[in-house]
Amino acid sequence: MTLRPEDPHPTAQEAGAADGESASPRCDSFRTPRDARFLRRFNVWMVAAALAYLGATAALRWRASIPAVLPAALVALAALLSIQAVRAYLTFLRGADELLRRIQTEALALGFASGAVTSLLYPLLEGFGAPRLGAQATTVVMMLAWSLGSWLGTRRYSGSDGA
Amino acid sequence: MARHPALLRERRRLRNRLRLLRAERGWSQAELAQRLGVSRQTVNAIETGRYDPSLPLAFALARLFERTIEELFEPDGAA
After folding, report:
1. What pLDDT, on the 0 to 100 scale, is given for residue B76?
2. Which run of H or E residues covers position B74?
3. Which of A82, A105, A137, B43 is most deeply packed, by most CB within 10 A?
4. pLDDT value for A48
5. Which residues, given as ranges, of chain A have pLDDT below 50?
6. Section B20-28 average pLDDT
7. Chain A partners of B47 at a C-beta cutoff of 8 Å?
8. Predicted TM-score of the model (pTM)
9. In chain A, which among 2-21 make CB contacts under 8 A with chain B?
């Protein structure tokens, strides 16, 4: 289709067709190089914190057969690494591309709301015979909802129907 | 409290002519994104009307294309 210069507002589809570019290409291009760098840093801290958490859990389970200082040291290490991971995420979020920041903020809101609703309502369901869940279940729900929110946000802002 | 109808109208998505101006300069979305310091998907989402830019980004776009913000964006459905 030929663009008409006199038309002040061609639709994106018209202009996209004119310059041979898809109006809504779906690809992994939501991150600037800076975002990718900060996200890698966050991932490193997250993996380290997760490993420390697993180590601390194991050490607490076998605390009778290992030096007493080891479980305490691993718990402290897990806490420190988790704090570092949170700091790295905040750094990433503050410096992120504005669309990515919006997607992440909406995903965090979904994660927080899902966790809050689960922690408040699930105990009521337990009263009706639902299986008892551990304390970490809410965290798992929050993380899953956060991931789902990120995926939904990515879809929303890269869809092809303009909705 | 009910919102004023004019405010509701303003909250509609913005139409813009970024794609046209970008095409006139022969820039790809990636190139424009690099000039603005944002991701390519941000440029794409603005062009397709899925995302309204922040005020600083709107000013950056206006400066880059040497237009006013009003020349780049207008509320969808505006006369």
Report:
1. 66
2. strand B73-75
3. B43
4. 97
5. 1-28, 161-163
6. 94
7. 12, 15-16, 23
8. 0.74
9. 3, 8-10, 12, 15-16, 18-19, 21
Report d(CA A57, CA A134) in Å as an integer.
14
Interchain contact, A97 vs B57, CB within 8 Å:
no
Among A98-102, B14-18, B19-23, B64-68, the minimum mean pLDDT is found in: B14-18
* B53-67 burial code (b ≥16 CB/10 A, e <16): beeebbebbbebbee
Q: A100: which 2 tokens? A: 């990515």
Q: Is A130 helix (H, G, I), strand (E, B) or coil?
A: coil
Specify the pairing of strand B73-75 against strand B14-16: antiparallel
Cβ burial, residue A67 (10 Å; 0-12/13-18/19+): exposed
Determine the pLDDT at residue A24: 39
Which of A8, A12, A31 is nearest residue B48 as measured by Cβ atoms?
A12
Mutation for A interface: B15, B34, B42, most A CBs within 10 A: B42
Length of chain B equals 79
> Which has the closest alpha carbon to A141: A102, A161, A120, A114?
A114
What is the rounded distance in angstroms from the CA atom of residue A94 to the CA atom of residue A126? 39
For residue range A125-135, what is the model confidence (pLDDT) as tens digits? 999 999 988 87
Residue B41 tokens, joined: 């998907």
Contacts of A3 (CB under 8 A, 6+ apart): A10, A14, A15, A18, B20, B23
CB of B23 within 8 Å of any CB in chain A?
Answer: yes
